[in-house]
Amino acid sequence: MKVRDMRGLVLPLLMVGAWEYASRQGAAGAYAFVPLAQVASAMAELLGSGELLINLWASLTRTCTGLGVGIVGGIGLGALMALCGPANRLIAPLFHALRQVPMLGWIPLIALWLGNGESAKLLIVSLAALYPMVLNTFESRRQVEGQHREAAQVLMLSRWQQLRLILLPAAVPGIAAGVLQALAFAWVTSVGSELFLSSGAGLGSLMMNAEAAARMEIIIVCVLCIGLSGYLMSWLCTLLSRRLLRWRPNR
Amino acid sequence: MNAIAHPLHPSVDTGALTICGLSKTYALKGRPVKVLKDIDLNIRPGEFVSILGASGCGKSTLLRLIVGLDQDYQGQILLDQQPVRGPGLERGIVFQDHRLFPWMTLQQNIALALKNHVMPAAQKDRLVAEHIDLVGLRGFELAYPHQLSGGMAQRAAIARALVNKPKVLLLDEPLGALDALTRVRLQQELQRIWIQERCTVIMVTHDIDEALYLGDRVIVMDANPGTIREDLPIDLPHPRERDSALLQGYKQRLLGELVGH
Questions:
Q1: Of A41, A131, A156, B204, which is most buried, counting CB atoms within 10 Å of its CB?
Q2: Domain range list for chain A
Q3: Mutate which: B93, B103, B154, vs A, most A CBs within 10 A
Q4: Which residue in A has a C-alpha nearest to residue B164's C-alpha?
Q5: Would you say B28 and B69 are in contact if contact means Cβ atoms under 8 Å apart?
Q6: Per the domain annotation, does B37 fall within a domain?
Q7: Residue B94: closest C-alpha in chain A
Q8: Can you give the pTM of this predicted structure?
Q9: B259 near B208, Cβ under 8 Å?
Q10: d(CA A98, CA B8)
Q11: Could you say which of B88, B99, B115 has the minimum Cβ distance to residue A151?
Q12: Cβ contact (<8 Å) for A150 and B144?
């Protein structure tokens, strides 16, 4: 890796340094900013006991399941709204109204219906992934230029062939952008739902328990873990979409 | 002109296009605007017809009607005595923009035109390869459209239109978006390809040189509403020399007519 690729590490390292410096400013400093050595030992402790991996795994699987549901449902609903005018006129007002309610605003209602178990969290994550998928799938239909449709007509492609060979590939860039957004929303709401519905495994639950026990070092470990995993997932997703979209000129 | 068109080349006996009393009206802000009025045109099999006119004379609209993308018109369009209804593979078209599908390679783009032909895959592959050769793009089979230059993309579009062996090839200002040098080179290429394929070609253009260099006939159109002003036979065998005295003479005359007033 070249030196210039490492520039992204400069700010995080500065922040770590500042944190450590602050933690050494007397008892008050150590109270507000837990020393890094303590964070490291908490990390070792959580890894050793398997607690970190179990909770991370729980959050990740929920994110992926919800993301999967959201992607499939979102592409389906978005395509229906894009391709069928009456369906769009019927669904769009309700969809856009519901979309205004923040994801975490659904939690009280869903908790009353489904309790605070896994199904409630999964529903929230799936909904969070659904919105961007519907929007992006719907919008990507406009990317199919009339010119491409005409070319397909002149080549006498059937409706099914047009859908499969023209409309679908033309929608892939939009759908890929949707997946990238949906992934971020799914990950955030997955952890967020654990904070509100803290039962069962998950990084959010681990954080809530650590807060109750005043273990700041564990909270820090969780925060780092959430940030890094999210970053890694969207990086993987970007790689995948570049591979799928290799026919596009590079930006 | 004879009522029944005689083929221009003995080997070609299909691809006769007859247009009778063709008119087309658009609604513009609720008011009808006549873009084509009483067009009569008889095109013989294997003939290369250039349609020349300023922008807005309805020449591109005429091609859209012939290719079947627009079926709302008055009058008749007959291909080999059969009325034309909607698009069909016996009519190919090349637009000013290449309209290749960006997610397909050059090869896939051309093969798409053969999608609904019933023939063995090996034969399709052979046809695609032949036509890539024909337009001089061998070696670029796996390139995506964004990797091709404008001229190359337009060659690919020509190959895609020809791979079906259409009776009539329609060219809608196919070289209009290219730089001057590429355009001249592709005009020569078009002439060579046409001599080889000998299908009927109707090319819309606003370039006088291009119309004269390629056309067996040059149809000059007037605008508002679009009508045929002149039907000029260019009696000069192909392949032609660009600087032939006959072509230069016609050029002066057409320049005078189109821009002179």
A1: B204
A2: 36-244
A3: B103
A4: A155
A5: no
A6: no
A7: A151
A8: 0.79
A9: no
A10: 68
A11: B99
A12: no
Specify the pLDDT at position B1: 41
How far does B207 lie from chain A, in Å, by closest CA? 24
Question: What stretches in chain A show pLDDT beneath 50?
Answer: none
**Interface predicted TM-score (ipTM):** 0.85
Are residues A82 and A170 in contact, defined by beta-carbon separation less than 8 angstroms? Answer: no
Rounded to whole angstroms, the Cα distance separating B240 from B144 reads 34
Whether residue B1 is contained in a domain is answered as no
- Chain B positions in Cβ-Cβ contact with residue A158 (cut-off 8 Å): 116
Domain count, chain B: 1
What CATH number should be reported for the domain whose range is A36-244?
Answer: 1.10.3720.10
Residue B11 scores a pLDDT above 70: no
A158/B102 CB distance under 8 A: no
**Does residue B31 form part of some domain?**
no
CATH number at residue B144: 3.40.50.300
Report CA A193 to chain centroid distance, whole Å: 13
Which is it for strands B200-205 and B82-83: parallel, antiparallel or unpaired?
unpaired
Q: Which residue segment(s) compose the domain that B222 sits in?
A: 45-70+86-260
Instruction: Write the pLDDT tens digit of every residue in A184-231.
Output: 999 999 999 998 887 788 999 999 999 898 899 999 999 999 999 999
**Alpha carbon of A155: minimum distance to chain B alpha carbons (Å):** 5
CA angle B24-B79-B189, nearest 5°? 95
In a domain, B20, yes or no: no
Residues A57, A62, A64: CA angle, nearest 5 degrees: 95
Give the alpha-carbon dihedral of A119, A121, A123, A129, to 10 degrees. Answer: -150
Nearest CA in chain A to B67: A154
Instruction: Give the tens place of pLDDT for each residue, B164-184.
Output: 999 999 999 999 888 989 999
pLDDT value, residue B258: 82
Would you state the pLDDT for residue B4?
A: 46
